[in-house]
Write a structure and sequence with these properties.
With about 130 residues, the protein is an alpha/beta fold. It is built from six helices and five strands. A five-stranded parallel sheet has the order 1-5-4-2-3.
């Protein structure tokens, strides 16, 4: 029993460590900071949701590249390698994966919007169709 608990504890520590290493270099930012980044810094805003989700409402000036197409369309974003990117999806999961793809491709300033567009809308921020 004690050996099983030790093994479980070690696995949990290992998984947390791996996640921390994978997320290195990606900022996860709150909605107000995301609004500031999009509004004042003029970051590239990248929506990685499906076309149907994007069409139902998105951030103003968002570039739409679904997560499943991102790897094959990185060349479209090459001019933004040294500029800030604000990445979002519905709730933050797909955008976190997109941020990892972007960081691995050499993008310098990648920011994942916490809570995705759901949090954006809940904060009273506007979307466009």
């Amino acid at each position: 029993m004690l050996n099983t608990l030790i093994i479980i504890a070690v696995l949990i520590i290992l998984l947390v460590s791996i996640r921390a290493i994978r997320n290195k270099g990606v900022s996860s930012i709150a909605i107000n900071d995301a609004f500031e980044l999009a509004d004042n810094v003029h970051a590239l805003i990248l929506d990685v949701r499906t076309k149907e989700e994007f069409d139902s409402g998105h951030l103003s000036n968002a570039t739409h590249i679904p997560l499943n197409e991102l790897q094959g369309r990185l060349s479209e974003l090459v001019s933004y390698k040294e500029k800030p990117l604000l990445v979002y999806c519905h709730s933050g999961g797909r955008s976190a994966a997109a941020c990892q793809i972007l960081k691995q491709a050499g993008f310098a300033d990648v920011n994942n919007m916490q809570g995705g567009i759901s949090a954006w809308i809940n904060a009273g921020k506007k979307v466009v169709k």
